Structure of Threonine/homoserine/homoserine lactone efflux protein:
Amino acid sequence: MGIENLMTFIVTALLFIMTPGIDTVFVLNKSIGQGKKSGVYASFGVNAGVLVHTFFAALGLSVLIGKSTFALTLIKFLGAGYLIYLGFLKLKNKEEFIPTDKNKLNKNSKNDFWTGFLTNALNPKVALFFLAFFPQFINVNQMDNPIPFLLLGITYALIGIVWFLILTLFASVFSQKLRSIPKSGRWLNKLSGLIFIVMGIKIALAKI
């Protein structure tokens, strides 16, 4: 299928995914603050964002975006602004962990999916990373073929889902212990909010 050294790709991708970053912080935040279900939705949302970058890479759109300073800058500031917005929402949130109302819980979980999706899809560094990383494992004669890019992207996303679900499982156990501490949910919201704001500022100031 035009892919070379697939096992090396899987091992390398796992190491990249396991390295703490925005996605890891986001999934942990949802898992600890809102429980396992939110963490699961967030995990799938983050990796759905990976598939967007994969699709762009397969069509060659990532190359065009990568050559456009304006497009990269626009995406960078959109992503940074979104993270800062999430951070301020967290700082204002005074709820204590998981809401008891089932309708609200289901709505929050769906929001977690779309928030994770946008957090990843609006990160230009992910697109640039794929452009640099994927071609290392594609036959030079297949660079114009979208199939290898799609297969590598799907593989990357599946590895990410497995890893983040494992994180979610462990973090949700920690969440149960935190719930027994008075006002711990509010303090967790404040901490998470500050982390998102700092990451948003970091992305905004980063050179591409």
